[in-house]
């Protein structure tokens, strides 16, 4: 960054932030070029339905987020624009997909094994005559 020329159209204090923003825009541009190089149908054919939903939701959320930033740069308050409701709607669907994914990852309970484990772990009192038999054997020795 030392070799960059500082423009006098904006305060020097924000130069570092603007440089980081420019780098981020470049990274987004490269990612979009990579994504656009593969057709959507070709990409989705390789994925299961849940993964397809994730790709669609992330794409929609990203585009709406970029529109949010665009509105802010144009002086429009995005909080008062319908894009806010759209982002919330997408976020609700993303949470639903996350719940489904978490349910798939959750362990299944084997009730038979659990009941056997609990039965074997519980304390069982010894029968009364078993203790007398054990004591008789010890006293004779």
Task: Give an account of the 3D structure.
This is Nuclear nucleic acid-binding protein C1D. Helix content is 71%, strand content 0%. It is mostly helical and 141 residues long. α3 runs antiparallel to α4.
Q: Looking at the structure, what is the overall shape?
A: elongated
Supply Rg: 32 Å
What's the rounded overall pLDDT mean? Answer: 83
Helix content estimate: over 70%
The DSSP helix count reads: 6
Give the amount of beta strand, in percent.
under 5%
Uncertain residue ranges: none
Largest sheet: none
E-strand count: 0
Order of helices and strands: HHHHHH
What structural category do the secondary elements indicate?
Answer: mainly alpha
> What is the straight-line distance between the termini?
92 Å
Task: Put the structure in a nutshell.
The chain is mostly helical and 141 residues long. The protein has helices at residues 15-36, 40-45, 49-73, 83-105, 111-121, 128-140.
Core attributes:
71% helix, mainly alpha, 141 residues, elongated, 6 helices
Secondary structure: elements and pairs:
Layout: H1 15-36, H2 40-45, H3 49-73, H4 83-105, H5 111-121, H6 128-140
Helix pairs in contact: 3-4
Organism: Macaca mulatta (Rhesus macaque)
Main location: cytoplasm
GO molecular function, one term: DNA binding
């Amino acid at each position: 960054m030392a070799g960059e020329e500082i423009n006098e159209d904006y305060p020097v204090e924000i130069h570092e932030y603007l440089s980081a923003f420019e780098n981020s825009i470049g990274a987004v541009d490269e990612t979009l070029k990579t994504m656009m190089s593969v057709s959507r149908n070709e990409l989705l054919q390789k994925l299961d339905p849940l993964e397809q939903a994730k790709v669609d939701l992330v794409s929609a959320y990203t585009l709406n987020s970029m529109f949010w930033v665009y509105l802010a740069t144009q002086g429009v308050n995005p909080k008062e624009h319908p894009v806010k409701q759209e982002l919330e709607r997408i976020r609700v669907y993303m949470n639903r997909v996350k719940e489904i994914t978490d349910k798939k990852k959750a362990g299944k309970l084997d009730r038979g094994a659990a009941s056997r484990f609990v039965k074997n772990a519980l304390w069982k009192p010894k029968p009364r005559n078993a203790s007398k038999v054990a004591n008789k054997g010890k006293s004779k020795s």
